[in-house]
Write a structure and sequence with these properties.
The structure is a single chain. The protein is an alpha/beta fold. The protein has 13 helices and eleven strands. The chain has a nine-stranded mixed β-sheet with strand order 3-2-4-7-1-8-11-10-9. Helix 6 crosses helix 11. The two termini are about 15 Å apart.
Length: about 375
């Protein structure tokens, strides 16, 4: 199995109602990712795009992106859902020895229609989907209440996550929601969507695109002076929401264990220098702390209370601002991957000192049903 590195990347500015088509957005990040990797289109062996037909509003949504992504007359495929799954697919193609250089690209134009409404199609069709009270936000609120009752976390703890991430986002030029001076009170007083979730506790849908270039060990050393190596990958999907414990992210725990085993990580709190997690709702960051093994179950709130997940803390989480600073849906996880790469390269605005090992996390599905974890490092 070949070793794989990330040698280039690009992220668009996250915004609302971007004045460009999906094809233009994909073309721009694909071109910039290849430029940053020092490669030409002719060097690509395969291209993987990530989107969903539901969010694009058209079937076989990737067919219109072949030219824009540089995949014309090349091996091309699609990973449904988050862009980190496109990166996984691309990495597997390189690991197999079939290709040496791959492009993974993702995008979403959220302004076209409300992505939260689209998630209703994830519900069981005969009963749950008929209940107009059930949607992604109300179900996340139920998850939050269940988690809070078990852990002792309260609304103020959730607001502290928002304050941390939105302040971090203020230094990130690509972020959509930036609030350098936001307070706990302002988070709690923002519009209530479904108790306990207020507007600032929910990742804001926006338009955006992202791309990464992956390469085999041989190609990485040829094209890049500072490749970031993929040391571990773990992926897991849990059961339907009525058939699992919503108060825990078991599939994230399993995915993390698989990634840690592959990367040789035995003590994640000590061995991970920074983590970029996809927290579409504030309480899910606490749940991620626990599922990733950064603390014991129910103790996620202590990491916030003690400042451990701040940029200057023992285990910095979401120095970029995370999903709470902007959620371009299919590109959100890929952006977490890129931010982890940037941390290792020392290129971020909120740089963690001596960052050599980073974790990136993507989720999909109602109440974070499906989870993917990458462990990255500056050396093999």
């Amino acid at each position: 199995m070949k070793r794989v590195a990330i040698i280039g990347y690009a992220v668009s500015r996250l915004e609302w109602d971007a004045e460009k088509t999906r094809e233009e957005a994909v073309f721009e990040v694909a071109r910039e990712a290849m430029r940053s990797a020092g490669i030409e289109r002719e060097d690509l062996g395969t291209a993987i795009s990530a989107s969903t037909d539901f969010l694009d509003g058209r079937t076989i949504s990737n067919c219109m992106l072949i030219g824009a992504s540089g995949a014309y007359l090349k091996d091309e495929s699609k990973a449904e859902e988050d862009g980190m799954y496109a990166a996984l697919y691309a990495a597997q193609r390189i690991m197999s020895g079939v290709h040496d250089v791959a492009l993974a690209v993702s995008h979403t134009h959220s302004w076209i229609f409300n992505p939260h409404q689209v998630t209703q199609y994830m519900l069981e069709p005969w009963f749950d989907r008929q209940n107009e009270l059930l949607n992604e936000i109300t179900l996340a609120a139920l998850q939050a209440r269940l988690y809070m009752s078990r852990s002792g976390a309260d609304e103020e703890h959730l607001a502290e996550v928002c304050v941390k991430n939105l302040r971090n986002a203020a230094k990130n030029p690509a972020a959509f929601r930036k609030m350098a001076d936001v307070t706990v009170e302002e988070v709690l007083e923002s519009r209530l969507y479904s108790s306990p979730l207020t507007e600032l506790m929910i990742a804001p849908p926006c338009d955006g695109a992202a791309a990464v270039i992956l390469a085999s060990e041989e190609a990485a050393k040829e094209f890049c002076d500072d490749p970031v190596w993929i040391r571990g990958i773990g992926n897991a999907c849990d059961r339907y929401l009525r058939d699992r414990d919503l108060g825990r992210l078991d599939s994230l725990r399993i995915a993390a264990e698989r990634a840690y085993r592959m990367a040789g990580i035995e003590e994640p709190f000590r061995q991970i220098d920074v983590a970029e997690v996809t927290e579409r709702f504030a309480h899910q960051e606490f749940m991620a702390y626990e599922a990733l093994g950064f603390c014991r179950e129910g103790m996620g709130k202590v990491l916030i209370e003690e400042g451990m997940t701040e940029v200057y803390g023992e285990i910095p989480v979401n120095p970029s601002g995370g999903a709470l600073s902007g959620d371009p849906v299919c590109a959100t996880g890929m952006i977490r991957l890129i931010e982890a790469v940037r941390q290792i390269r020392g290129e971020t605005e909120n740089q963690v000192e001596e960052c050599r090992t980073a974790l990136a996390h993507a989720q999909w599905g109602l109440c974070a049903q499906k989870n993917l974890v990458f462990i990255l490092g500056d050396r093999l």
